[in-house]
């Protein structure tokens, strides 16, 4: 098990076909919710006032996270920042 903090900033071009935009967003939602049901996508939080989210992933390896992120339907329109997390020595959980 390895935890990762991931920030995703979304920037969809204004001239993208509205049908393609809607279809991509619907696929993104299903992809994300399937991974949430699997337990791999542990948290997703909207960043206030931005088309961005902060997420926590619980995966086996960095390669697995890479595959997940690479296959996001919105991947071509995202800037993604990944921070690996280690257990803090003072954590009681
Ligand atoms: O809306 C976003 O922040 C992008 C996104 C990631 C998963 C999802 O459902 O939307």
Automatic annotation (TrEMBL):
<keyword id="KW-0058">Aromatic hydrocarbons catabolism</keyword>
<keyword id="KW-0413">Isomerase</keyword>
<protein>
    <recommendedName>
        <fullName>Muconolactone Delta-isomerase</fullName>
        <ecNumber>5.3.3.4</ecNumber>
    </recommendedName>
</protein>
<dbReference type="InterPro" id="IPR003464">
    <property type="entry name" value="Muconolactone_d_Isoase"/>
</dbReference>
<dbReference type="GO" id="GO:0042952">
    <property type="term" value="P:beta-ketoadipate pathway"/>
</dbReference>
<comment type="subunit">
    <text>Homodecamer.</text>
</comment>
<dbReference type="GO" id="GO:0016159">
    <property type="term" value="F:muconolactone delta-isomerase activity"/>
</dbReference>
<feature type="domain" description="Muconolactone isomerase">
    <location>
        <begin position="3"/>
        <end position="90"/>
    </location>
</feature>
<dbReference type="InterPro" id="IPR026029">
    <property type="entry name" value="MLI_dom"/>
</dbReference>
<comment type="similarity">
    <text>Belongs to the muconolactone Delta-isomerase family.</text>
</comment>
<comment type="pathway">
    <text>Aromatic compound metabolism; beta-ketoadipate pathway; 5-oxo-4,5-dihydro-2-furylacetate from catechol: step 3/3.</text>
</comment>
<dbReference type="Pfam" id="PF02426">
    <property type="entry name" value="MIase"/>
</dbReference>
<dbReference type="InterPro" id="IPR011008">
    <property type="entry name" value="Dimeric_a/b-barrel"/>
</dbReference>
